[in-house]
């Protein structure tokens, strides 16, 4: 008999988080060696549809817990249930998308099961029968490899966009097993009393394209051309620490060592010098474009394409050309 | 009223890191500092102390060898009341599972803790797992990614916070005791004052060993860890720098760039 892999499927307001599908893709790869089933763990309220989606993305089996106590992600009921299922079914591996919620859930379950959790992996590969995880440390200035030699299940949180999202196959068949939550509402200490959604815009960690502004944008209004370019590209807006610390744009947008770590397909850095702390947050981007007045700016060492010039001339020009080319 | 801030020492975020064949990381002349994320936790603890007329005691706790003193001193210089270092040879090579065990045992020894504050993660190993693991071990309310403490009632034993998630800000109410993982944006950490630095220099920093906190050796260090670090190495280097696009007009440059990006299939 093969060894199963659990994948936690994250949802917010009934919508799945993309990194969960990436995790199912990663699990399918690993299952070729482990030989067991890929079991998706779908928790929420009114999330039956997600069970079908999980199968389409590659799950063989879904543990579906549909209950009001699970409507919002809270680590207490989610960890208790995931740990309970793991004890019952003894998977070899648990994969979790390394989102905010996933990075809470992984270690919580690890404590419950007294096992290891490797955070924020960018690759998972079998070497001599051992599952080896690669993860960036020191904000990506170095890489490391980690294993979980003895304890099981081995838990890994995997970095969003580091693993390919599989193409869903609506014809795939799988088994859905309903499970009950472990905790009752009165046993859960944290109560969600409100939520204020970030207005508009694409989330940085999910974005395929990011347009970022730095000190060179000169002020809050300097982000206008950046936003316009982002809009044409369907991109998220990022910022360097300098721009955030100056109060030109909220912290939520900060990319770098003390902000978010991103790896989009395309990262356009506008007026960003490229301090080592900023590079730490975006160096794994597939293609990097730098637009900066200073030809000596370190960002040009990291970038694939560079334009030396005034961002207030080149960014609007780029927006204009893209509008034509993308037919917008 | 007792607040504990957990800190870690790290190399400066601007440090140029090198790694040798054996995987030993070195950071040249760069100083060892308090993990920059932890400064937000320290500042928040001091702000709470100030808000409650200086009544809460703020203890800063660090697990680590002698280098960890730097983090403790910085926190005392900012305004924490006392610093405790917990260390034992048996704690070496702890992963987050083992580290959280040691910290939880040290906090249990203190006995009367209402709040434990952490930075979001350490900038070196950057797992961000220890706050949640400590909360889970102690059964404290787990409040991570906190960008604002909305309400704190030591007598009524409740806390309400805003948490920063991918989609926005979530408001959560929970009972004390609680673990709070702070994020940047919660405050502006102060610089240590001259008086503070003097206090930090003169302060005593007790060291608690495994025996002092009643830690079982097989639950700490490598024996208590689930994760083993295998190798550390520099990322592959890209040669050459950027291909600079030059043209007569910004629009022409934009056209050339868009062609290239389309060829790369990233737009």
Question: Could you describe the 3D structure shown?
Answer:
- Helices cover 30% and strands 29% of the residues of chain A.
- Chain A is of the alpha/beta class and 328 residues long.
- Chain B has a single domain, classed as Rossmann fold (3-Layer(aba) Sandwich).
- Classes of the chains: A alpha/beta (328), B alpha/beta (267).
- At the A-B interface, helix 3, helix 4, strand 7, strand 9 and strand 10 of A face helix 3, helix 4, strand 9, strand 10 and strand 11 of B.
Could you give a short description of this structure?
The complex is a heterodimer of chains A (328) and B (267). Chain A has 328 residues and is of the alpha/beta class. Chain A has nine helices and 18 strands.
Write the layout of secondary structure elements.
The complex is a heterodimer of chains A (328) and B (267).
Chain A lengths: L2 E7 L1 E2 L2 E2 L1 H17 E10 L3 H10 L3 E6 L8 H15 L3 E5 L2 H14 L3 E5 L1 E5 L2 E8 L4 E6 L6 E5 L16 E4 L12 E7 L11 E5 L9 H11 L2 E4 L1 H5 L20 E5 L5 H7 L4 E6 L6 H4 L2 E4 L2 H15 L3
Parallel strand pairs in A: 1-4, 1-6, 4-5, 5-12, 6-11, 7-11, 14-15, 14-16, 16-17, 17-18
Antiparallel strand pairs in A: 2-3, 8-9, 9-10
Helix pairs in contact in A: 3-4, 5-9
Chain B lengths: L1 E6 L1 E3 L6 E2 L5 E2 L5 E3 L1 H16 L5 E7 L5 H10 L3 E5 L9 H15 L4 E4 L11 H9 L2 E13 L4 E8 L2 E8 L2 E5 L11 H9 L4 E2 L1 H4 L14 E6 L9 E2 L5 H14 L4
Parallel strand pairs in B: 1-6, 1-8, 6-7, 7-13, 8-12, 9-12
Antiparallel strand pairs in B: 2-5, 3-4, 9-10, 10-11
Helix pairs in contact in B: 2-5, 3-4
